TrEMBL record:
GO terms for molecular function: hydrolase activity; metal ion binding. This is MBL fold metallo-hydrolase. Its cofactor is Zn(2+). Residues 14-196 form the Metallo-beta-lactamase domain. It holds the Pfam family Lactamase_B. PANTHER family: HYDROXYACYLGLUTATHIONE HYDROLASE GLOC. It comes from the Bacteria. InterPro entries: MBL_Glyoxalase_II, Metallo-B-lactamas, RibonucZ/Hydroxyglut_hydro.
Amino acid sequence: MKLSTRTYPLGPIQTNCYIVSNSSKQCLIFDPGEEGERLIRDIKANQLKPLAIFLTHTHFDHIGAVNEVRDAFNIPVYVHEKEVAWLADPMKNGSGKYAELPNYIVDEPQYEHIIRGEQVFTIEDFTFKAVFTPGHSPGSISYIFEEGGFAIVGDTLFEGSIGRTDLIGGSMPVLLQSIHDKLLTLPEDTIIYPGHGDYTTPAAEMEANPFLNGF
């Protein structure tokens, strides 16, 4: 089934939220980080039917609108087991560092499902794989849509760059290993949808990303 991916750069940091929909107008929402009203309005305007929210990780700019969107459509939220506690911890999710920005004081986002192991999800007509790509944070997940030819990778890999590793639980060696083992091994023309900025491909990053020269 043909899938369509909408990209929404949200909030002051322009964090990418992705809405993946099928021909039946069902959709999955990844990282609703801010501007919940805008997301809800656009989803309704396009007559989409949300099924679930999936988080790549729980930094504040990726979870700020979780409750608003979740409650608007009465849908479940999926999060990695290593970052469940981060949802309610302003120092770990980073929202405590931005007290001057009221919109970024994150209320504890609610969740229904904990992702404990790498697995294949089948939700209605959507089939995709959740693979662990820690390094930027300990519970970072990339979602691989093999049939669709794309992956939603959060802040693991960017066009010409990689995720920062100076935050709590970050590790440069772990991040580079995640990228090498889980993302650069995908077909070279796979569309990589990152947490910020434009999409890229494994081929482009192996060719020009200065952080990956060793690979």
